[in-house]
Amino acid sequence: MATKPLTGTKVFLMLVAFFGVVIGVNVTMMKLAIATLPGTDVDSPYAAGLTYDREISAAQDQAARKWQVSAHIERRTDGGAALQVDARDASGRPLTGLKFGGRLERPTDKRADLQVELSEAGIGIYRGNAAAVAPGQWDLVIEGEARGTRVFMSRNRVILN
Protein backbone atom coordinates (compact mmCIF):
# COMPACT_ATOMS: atom_id res chain seq x y z
CA MET A 1 0.00 0.00 0.00
CA ALA A 2 1.48 3.31 -1.11
CA THR A 3 1.29 6.28 1.25
CA LYS A 4 1.19 9.83 0.05
CA PRO A 5 4.01 11.99 1.33
CA LEU A 6 3.27 14.75 3.86
CA THR A 7 4.00 17.97 2.06
CA GLY A 8 4.32 21.53 3.30
CA THR A 9 1.06 22.46 1.54
CA LYS A 10 -0.88 19.73 3.41
CA VAL A 11 0.59 20.82 6.77
CA PHE A 12 -0.26 24.44 6.04
CA LEU A 13 -3.87 23.54 5.10
CA MET A 14 -4.24 21.41 8.25
CA LEU A 15 -3.00 24.29 10.45
CA VAL A 16 -5.33 26.78 8.73
CA ALA A 17 -8.30 24.40 9.16
CA PHE A 18 -7.49 23.76 12.85
CA PHE A 19 -7.12 27.43 13.78
CA GLY A 20 -10.13 28.33 11.61
CA VAL A 21 -12.33 25.97 13.64
CA VAL A 22 -10.94 27.27 16.97
CA ILE A 23 -11.43 30.92 15.98
CA GLY A 24 -14.92 30.19 14.59
CA VAL A 25 -16.03 28.54 17.85
CA ASN A 26 -14.57 31.40 19.92
CA VAL A 27 -16.34 34.05 17.83
CA THR A 28 -19.65 32.17 18.06
CA MET A 29 -19.39 31.78 21.86
CA MET A 30 -18.43 35.45 22.26
CA LYS A 31 -21.43 36.61 20.22
CA LEU A 32 -23.80 34.39 22.24
CA ALA A 33 -22.36 35.65 25.54
CA ILE A 34 -22.66 39.30 24.54
CA ALA A 35 -26.21 38.86 23.19
CA THR A 36 -27.64 37.29 26.35
CA LEU A 37 -26.09 39.24 29.29
CA PRO A 38 -28.72 37.96 31.76
CA GLY A 39 -26.83 38.98 34.90
CA THR A 40 -26.51 42.71 34.35
CA ASP A 41 -28.37 45.04 36.73
CA VAL A 42 -28.59 47.99 34.36
CA ASP A 43 -28.35 48.30 30.60
CA SER A 44 -26.07 51.34 30.82
CA PRO A 45 -23.83 51.72 33.87
CA TYR A 46 -22.89 55.22 32.70
CA ALA A 47 -26.52 56.40 32.68
CA ALA A 48 -27.10 54.75 36.07
CA GLY A 49 -24.10 56.64 37.46
CA LEU A 50 -25.55 59.95 36.27
CA THR A 51 -28.81 59.34 38.16
CA TYR A 52 -27.06 58.21 41.36
CA ASP A 53 -27.40 61.58 43.17
CA ARG A 54 -31.11 61.79 42.33
CA GLU A 55 -31.64 58.28 43.73
CA ILE A 56 -29.89 59.25 47.00
CA SER A 57 -32.04 62.38 47.30
CA ALA A 58 -35.24 60.40 46.61
CA ALA A 59 -34.25 57.81 49.26
CA GLN A 60 -33.65 60.57 51.83
CA ASP A 61 -37.03 62.16 51.04
CA GLN A 62 -38.72 58.76 51.38
CA ALA A 63 -37.07 58.12 54.75
CA ALA A 64 -38.15 61.57 55.99
CA ARG A 65 -41.82 60.74 55.26
CA LYS A 66 -41.63 57.73 57.64
CA TRP A 67 -44.33 55.88 55.74
CA GLN A 68 -45.22 52.36 56.83
CA VAL A 69 -45.65 50.30 53.67
CA SER A 70 -45.98 46.54 53.93
CA ALA A 71 -46.38 44.04 51.13
CA HIS A 72 -47.66 40.48 51.17
CA ILE A 73 -47.28 38.13 48.21
CA GLU A 74 -48.62 34.62 48.04
CA ARG A 75 -48.78 31.88 45.47
CA ARG A 76 -52.18 31.16 43.92
CA THR A 77 -53.29 27.66 42.97
CA ASP A 78 -53.20 28.50 39.23
CA GLY A 79 -49.44 29.23 39.32
CA GLY A 80 -49.80 33.00 39.58
CA ALA A 81 -49.18 35.25 42.55
CA ALA A 82 -51.37 37.73 44.43
CA LEU A 83 -49.74 40.89 45.79
CA GLN A 84 -51.22 43.18 48.43
CA VAL A 85 -49.66 46.45 49.60
CA ASP A 86 -50.83 48.25 52.75
CA ALA A 87 -49.66 51.89 52.83
CA ARG A 88 -49.87 54.16 55.87
CA ASP A 89 -48.35 57.54 56.70
CA ALA A 90 -46.13 58.30 59.71
CA SER A 91 -49.10 58.55 62.07
CA GLY A 92 -50.68 55.28 60.85
CA ARG A 93 -53.43 56.79 58.64
CA PRO A 94 -54.02 54.98 55.32
CA LEU A 95 -52.48 56.58 52.22
CA THR A 96 -55.00 56.98 49.41
CA GLY A 97 -54.83 58.35 45.90
CA LEU A 98 -51.37 57.01 45.16
CA LYS A 99 -50.48 54.94 42.14
CA PHE A 100 -48.61 51.80 43.21
CA GLY A 101 -46.96 49.36 40.85
CA GLY A 102 -44.96 46.24 41.40
CA ARG A 103 -42.39 44.15 39.59
CA LEU A 104 -41.16 40.65 40.17
CA GLU A 105 -37.56 40.61 38.97
CA ARG A 106 -35.43 37.51 38.57
CA PRO A 107 -32.07 38.16 40.24
CA THR A 108 -30.28 36.19 37.52
CA ASP A 109 -32.25 36.88 34.34
CA LYS A 110 -33.99 40.17 33.47
CA ARG A 111 -35.83 38.47 30.62
CA ALA A 112 -38.10 36.73 33.16
CA ASP A 113 -39.21 39.96 34.92
CA LEU A 114 -42.98 40.40 35.44
CA GLN A 115 -45.02 43.58 35.93
CA VAL A 116 -47.79 43.59 38.55
CA GLU A 117 -50.44 46.26 38.11
CA LEU A 118 -51.83 47.34 41.49
CA SER A 119 -55.14 49.07 41.99
CA GLU A 120 -56.61 50.56 45.14
CA ALA A 121 -58.88 47.89 46.61
CA GLY A 122 -59.66 49.73 49.83
CA ILE A 123 -58.54 52.70 51.86
CA GLY A 124 -54.74 52.45 51.72
CA ILE A 125 -54.81 48.88 50.37
CA TYR A 126 -53.55 48.12 46.86
CA ARG A 127 -53.89 44.72 45.18
CA GLY A 128 -52.70 43.09 41.99
CA ASN A 129 -52.02 39.74 40.36
CA ALA A 130 -49.22 38.25 38.29
CA ALA A 131 -49.85 35.28 36.03
CA ALA A 132 -47.54 32.29 35.54
CA VAL A 133 -44.88 33.06 38.14
CA ALA A 134 -42.13 30.44 38.09
CA PRO A 135 -41.00 29.07 41.46
CA GLY A 136 -37.78 30.32 42.99
CA GLN A 137 -36.16 33.55 44.16
CA TRP A 138 -37.54 36.89 43.01
CA ASP A 139 -36.89 40.53 43.88
CA LEU A 140 -40.20 42.23 44.69
CA VAL A 141 -39.94 45.89 43.68
CA ILE A 142 -42.74 48.23 44.77
CA GLU A 143 -42.95 51.81 43.54
CA GLY A 144 -45.49 54.45 44.53
CA GLU A 145 -46.20 57.62 42.58
CA ALA A 146 -48.03 60.83 43.42
CA ARG A 147 -48.70 63.37 40.67
CA GLY A 148 -46.22 61.67 38.33
CA THR A 149 -43.34 61.70 40.82
CA ARG A 150 -41.99 58.58 42.50
CA VAL A 151 -42.48 58.98 46.26
CA PHE A 152 -41.82 55.41 47.41
CA MET A 153 -39.61 52.51 46.32
CA SER A 154 -38.64 49.27 48.00
CA ARG A 155 -36.85 46.11 46.89
CA ASN A 156 -37.11 42.84 48.82
CA ARG A 157 -36.01 39.29 48.03
CA VAL A 158 -38.87 36.76 48.16
CA ILE A 159 -39.06 33.04 47.53
CA LEU A 160 -42.12 31.64 45.79
CA ASN A 161 -42.59 27.86 45.81
Sheet bearing the most strands, described?
Answer: 4 strands, antiparallel
In terms of per-residue confidence, which ranges show pLDDT below 50 for 5 or more consecutive residues?
none
State the shape.
elongated
The side-by-side strand order for the widest beta sheet comes to 1-2-6-5
If you compute it from the alpha carbons, what radius of gyration comes out, rounded to the nearest whole angstrom? 26 Å
- What is the number of helical segments per DSSP (H or I, 4+ residues)? 3
Summarize the helix and strand pattern as letters: HHHEEEEEEEE
For the secondary structure, the number of strands is 8
Strand content range: 35-45%
Helix content bin: 25-40%
Classify the secondary structure makeup into a structural class: alpha+beta
N-to-C span: 68 Å
Query: What is the residue-averaged pLDDT?
Result: 91
Observed structural traits:
transmembrane; single chain; Nitrogen fixation protein FixH; 4-stranded antiparallel beta sheet; membrane; FixH; elongated; 161 residues; transmembrane helix; alpha+beta
Architecture blueprint of SSEs:
Blueprint: H1 8-36, H2 45-50, H3 52-65, E1 68-75, E2 81-88, E3 99-105, E4 114-117, E5 119-122, E6 125-130, E7 136-146, E8 149-160
Antiparallel strand pairs: 1-2, 2-6, 3-4, 3-7, 5-6, 7-8
Describe this entry's structure for a reader.
Helices cover 30% and strands 37% of the residues. It is α+β, with helices and mostly antiparallel strands. It has a four-stranded antiparallel beta sheet with strand order 1-2-6-5, with no helix packed on it. Strand 1 and strand 2 form a beta hairpin.
